[in-house]
Specification:
By secondary structure, this protein is of the alpha+beta class. The chain has helices at 3-7, 27-37, 53-61, 66-74, 78-82, 94-104, 108-113, 117-122, 133-137, 153-157, and strands spanning 87-92, 125-126, 141-142, 151-152, 161-168, 171-176. Strand 3 and strand 4 form a beta hairpin. Helix 2 packs parallel to helix 4.
Length: 191
């Protein structure tokens, strides 16, 4: 389960706006995920935030991210994530969300309805820099989008990393098999 040993072997796909054919997308499924998520790379927001088309395409066309896409779409983070121009994302797979739900005794829908969903999701995003797996491993802590709740490299090591160093328009994605959770201050959130 050690990320460092797996990271050097696992960079299996690249992201770009033309990467659809190189990802295992399952086209009908990918189209339904994109439609369900309502992430449209050509939309602009009221404040004209530029979308990261490569990141949006990768997340919406990769079947193993359909739960992550749905969670981001249902939270208040849609614009923040889709407009990220630089950063690092530890992207949990569908299986990771399923395992998280089982551990917490929650259905997929109940996960999406949690008050702390945005806190959980922002804990997976390091907005300051696009970091390769070796750069991540050289740190002790990573300042996340969830201000005041840094992610420790020990937590990252506790997850299996199936794909690393996927470059998506200035954002590096590392695919993980675990939903990472910060220590919450509200006792009801600790389960």
């Amino acid at each position: 389960r050690h990320v460092a040993s797996r990271s050097m072997r696992s960079s299996s796909f690249k992201c770009s706006t033309s990467s659809r054919s190189r990802l295992n997308t399952g086209s009908k499924h990918a189209q339904s995920v994109a439609a369900t998520a309502e992430i449209n790379p050509t939309e602009t927001t009221a404040n004209a935030t530029k979308k990261n088309d490569a990141l949006v395409e990768t997340l919406t066309t990769t079947p193993e991210f359909s739960t992550l896409v749905s969670a981001v779409s249902r939270s208040v983070l849609l614009d923040a994530v889709t407009s990220l121009q630089t950063g690092t994302i530890f992207a949990p797979t569908n299986e990771a969300f399923e395992d998280f739900g089982k551990r917490k005794g929650l259905s997929r829908e109940q996960i999406f309805q949690r008050e702390n969903l945005a806190e959980i999701l922002t804990y997976h995003v390091v907005p300051s820099a696009s970091m390769s797996s070796s750069e991540v491993m050289s740190k002790d802590e990573l300042e996340t989008m969830n201000e005041g709740k840094p992610l420790t490299v020990q937590e990252v090591k506790g997850a299996n990393v199936s794909k690393v160093d996927v470059e998506c328009g200035g954002v590096t994605v590392h695919v993980i098999d675990k939903v990472l959770t910060p220590a919450f201050s509200v006792p009801a959130d600790i389960q």
